[in-house]
Amino acid sequence: MRYRVGRWPLVGRERELQEFAEASQDPRCRGFLVCGAAGVGKSRLAEECLEWVAAGGSQVGRATASAAAAAVPLGAIAHLLPAGVDLADPVTGFAAVAEKLGQGDRPRVLFVDDLHWLDSSSAVLLRQLMDAGVVQLLGTVRTGESYGEAVAALTGGDSVRRVDLRVLNSARVGELLVAALGRPVARHTVHELAAASGGNVLYLRELVLGALAAGDLTEDGEIWQLREGRLSGTARLVEVIGARLTGVGLAGRTVLELLALCEPLPLADAESVATPHTMAALEGAGLIRVAQDRRRTSVSLAHPLYGEVLRAGVPVLRRRALLLDQAARTEARGARRRGDPLRIATWRLAATGTADPALLTQAAVLARHAHDYAQAVALLQAVPEDRHTTATRSMLGDAYFEMGRWADAEKVLARADQLADGERETLAVALVRTTNLLWSNAPVAEALAANDAALARITNLADRRKLKINEGFMRIVAGLPEQGLALLEDLETDVDDACDVDAWLRGAWMKPAGLALVGRTDEAVVWAERAHAVHRRVDEKALASHPAFQRIPLVLALTEAGRPAEARRTGESAYAELVVADSVVRVWIAVLLGRTEWLSGRPVTARRWWAEAAALARTFDHAMALRLVLSGLAACAAVQGELEAAEVALAELGRLPTPEPGLLSAGEECLGRAWLLAARGELGEARTVLMAAACTARATGHATGEALLLTDVARLGGARQVMDRLTELARACDGELLPARAQLAQALAADHPELLLHAADACEAVGAYLLTAEAATAAAAAWHRDREPRRAAAAARRAATAAARCEGARTPLLMTARAVAALTAREREIALLAAVGTASLDIARALTLSVRTVDNHLHRAYAKLGVTTRRELARTLGRHTPPAHPQG
Q1: Which of 521, 619, 774, 817 is deepest in the core (most CB within 10 A)?
Q2: Pairwise CA distance, residues 221 & 645, whole Å
Q3: Which residues pair with 110 in a beta bridge?
Q4: DSSP per residue over 652-670, as a string?
Q5: How confident is the model at residue 408 (pLDDT cuts 50, 70, 90)?
Q6: Using CA atoms, how far apart are residues 798 and 795, in angstroms rounded to an integer?
Q7: Torsion angles phi and psi, residue 524, rounded to 5
Q8: Please, what is the angle between helix 671-679 and helix 703-713, to 10°?
Q9: Which of 837, 828, 836, 834 lies closest to 864, judged by CA?
Q10: What is the DSSP string of 726-761?
Q11: Residues 6+ apart with CB under 8 A from 619
Q12: Which among 818, 744, 812 is positioned nearest to 782, based on CA atoms?
């Protein structure tokens, strides 16, 4: 994949460009200044403005001011002046310059980069030319820089307009990365790059180029992703930042280094190594940031990359001294603030490689409750082996789990299980260990066996019930929702009534997922909302994942209830939280958001989410999620007409280990294969795959998954085969999505235009826009067949409106309904196979027909459609043009 190594696209500056466009058309405007911090993108914006006016016919020129050019009068703009002009005489010299530059019917636009460096002679001359209407100035000015009176006069006055550029926010950073790299970029990667660069475009570009050069930023054909914990810059980036940090003096350097190692710090601590005058100078230079929170004043570096550069340059012994001195200062104050133990332990560990075990444990608890799993691991790894307890090992195993380090977690937790003393410790280890086993690639039976082993060692009834709740949680995750719900039937509705916070949160996480899978979506939504609110309330008391993970079943429930817009908002908000927490559980938010978008008929967006989930699942070796999203990627690629990409995804799916049952895996992982077959025109085989998958879903109690699969059977020509079962499911389940699916199947089976339009209404009401487009397209074809052109045209417009929201999706029903309206079902199936180049002999084998019968059906289809060759057939049906074939 090629990426931009030259000038990057301009993103997020639409307002400023509009302001320049208005200023350039205003005869009273003499200048336009782009102001901002170094690296914010001033020059890039000004270049875009200059190109815009040049494209409109204006004469342009450009110059770059610098400290070196400032030492020579007119040094920066000498190349713009007419040859031979003597500026010693200001009157005649100015007249000659004005006459030369003023040729044309509009002012010449002069772009001067880094205007603050301009020498006085250049500034005076430019101001005269501006006031005379000869030139219009376009300049960039770095904020915080001092300049002389002449430059101040040049940039002042009502005739000079100014825009102040700010750094890009995270969303804009994401847009810029996609534009520069040419593919979607993982949300975690956007977050990391936005945080590291602070939205500064120059820094962002150098970080990206450094990561590309180091091989830390890679793409898999679908999405760009940064390797976990790796962010490389370039030598230029270090030089640029290093130049910003020079000239601050010894005291200033000391406080900057201290902040790099320990920020944020109380202002009093910073002023213990530097005078208030020095601190004020650092703030004025834009190197530090001072924040006031009630009575507390804290200091931090103005940009995260300053810390990276400073830390790299601090010698070992100096680093040790700075860290230990700051730890001593904090201890001398009594370490009164809640996070002080964590800060002290971290500083002492970084300085000496060790710290008091009790302090390390206390700090790890704080890190764990702050969901900083990497820091919790670092602190607990520093605890000597003989000072570890079952509780610390459980906490370490849990932190490993959250980071996706399944093998490390199992090693620690197996050891903790061996050393567990008493039933309470056995229970605590079992709850964490079984979760880790369940999410890793271990057989589900192994996780259930570990739960049973703990149950055999525990006699206390309350604790045994916690393990039963845990088993219910596991069975739902393992793809057995009815069994899991039976075990969670009596789960308390609030944690205050429960015997254990962690056990309740575990059950309350999976119960709504199980309810959604069996079609009890209203209950599922209520339970998921309840679980999230309770988790927020008790987060600091629980050894459980981030509260946002409770949103995973809510996304599923809202989608199945026919509320995809709410599911989308909920999921995206939760995913952003889990990205910041860097928790592995975010993979399932991405899985379900992809599923929501697929059901909404937005294959491009669904593919984007599933690509992100696939990248995460590969990183953490999470096969349960990877199987689902590879199938989803194949399905999306198939309906986008990218059959090779679909085949690549399915090939990777085929290389995965033998499937274990899992959440949503009962049948839905066959979607990719079915839709690839459909894209090839093999509708009968696609329906066979989907029917088999639907049987699997039914056998495991996945009512909503079964409905999804049966709906696709109906869309691919099998409506009569599935409409009764879909109607039965719609009666047994709640929510609006399933009734809309059943109505669509009935309408397709009847092939009645009014019923199809009613089905389109029902599908649109639940946000299923591709189903809406398909129903309306089928209605248009039916009206066309019945010789009702006005009604056909109205239905076609309705279909086009819905299809416009479906990101270019191409399904057999959408592409061929009108073209094949006059064909029988068998003629339609054979025509679709022939349109993608399938030979008559192969069609006959696939459909168990004779070649003669196939050819007869095919020739009748030719006659009805008014075509004579397979190439014409392919064009008529909107399929890929097949190669010439002797039987065509």
Answers
A1: 774
A2: 9
A3: 61, 137
A4: HHHHSPSPPP-TTTTTGGG
A5: very high
A6: 5
A7: -60, -45
A8: 10
A9: 828
A10: HHHHHHHS-SSHHHHHHHHHHHHHHT-HHHHHHHHH
A11: 225, 228, 404
A12: 818
Residue type, 721: Q
Alpha helices in 420-492 (DSSP H): 423-439, 444-456, 461-477, 481-487
Mean pLDDT comparison of 349-358, 580-589, 784-793, highest-scoring range: 349-358
Residues in the chain: 888
Q: What span, in angstroms and rounded, lies between the C-alpha atoms of 666 and 694? A: 8
Give tens-digit pLDDT for 421-463.
999 999 999 999 999 998 888 888 899 999 999 999 999 998 9
Query: Residue for token digits 């130049």?
Result: 243
CB 741 within 8 A of CB 601: no
Are 178 and 569 a contacting pair, CB within 8 Å? no
Alpha-carbon distances, residue 250 vs 246, 273, 274, 275 (angstroms): 10, 10, 9, 12
How many whole angstroms separate alpha carbon 845 and alpha carbon 852?
12
Amino acid at 101: L
What is the C-alpha separation between 793 and 625, in angstroms, rounded? 44
Q: Tell me the DSSP string of 546-599.
A: -GGGGHHHHHHHHHHTT-HHHHHHHHHHHHHHHHHHT-TTHHHHHHHHHHHHHH
- The residue written with tokens 């300053």 in the block is 306
CA dihedral 514, 519, 520, 522 (to 10 degrees): 110
Of 394, 391, 434, 436, the closest CA to residue 412 belongs to 394
* Contacts for 702 with CB less than 8 Å, ≥ 6 apart: 479, 481, 517, 518, 664, 666, 667
Contact present, 556 and 702 (Cβ < 8 Å): no
Span 688-729, pLDDT tens digits: 999 999 999 999 999 999 999 999 999 999 999 999 999 999
CB hemisphere CA count around 459 (13 angstroms): 1
Q: Average of pLDDT values for 768-775?
A: 97
- Helices vs strands, H then E, count in the chain: 45, 10
pTM to 2 decimals?
Answer: 0.85
DSSP β-bridge partners for residue 100 = none
Angstrom CA distances, 681 to 687, 717, 838, 841, 842, stand at 11, 12, 9, 15, 12
Q: Is 513 exposed, middle or buried (0-12, 13-18, 19+ CB in 10 A)?
A: buried
- Per residue in 482-510, pLDDT (tens digit) is 999 999 999 998 877 666 888 888 899 99
Q: How many Å apart are CA 639 and CA 712, to the nearest integer?
A: 13
- Look up residue 65 and give its DSSP letter: -
Checking DSSP bridges between strand 135-142 and strand 217-219, what pairing results, if any? unpaired
Helix (H, G, I), strand (E, B) or coil at 139: strand
Cα distance between residue 751 and residue 747, in whole Å = 6
**Which whole-number Å values give the CA distances from 749 to 322, 711, 723, in the listed order?**
77, 12, 8
Q: 406-419 and 390-402 helices cross at what angle (nearest 10)?
A: 160
CA distance 94 to 88: 10
Q: Strand 265-266's sheet: what is its strand order? A: 265-266, 296-301, 288-293
Q: Which helix (H) or strand (E) holds 113?
A: strand 108-113
Instruction: Report d(CA 106, CA 381) in Å as an integer.
Output: 71
Q: Give the pair of three-digit tokens for residue 299.
A: 């200091």
Q: Name residue 21's amino acid.
A: A
Whose CA is closest to 123, among 156, 163, 158? 156
Distances (CA, A) of 778 to 391, 576, 744, 808, 816: 62, 40, 11, 18, 9
CB atoms within 10 A of CB 153: 13
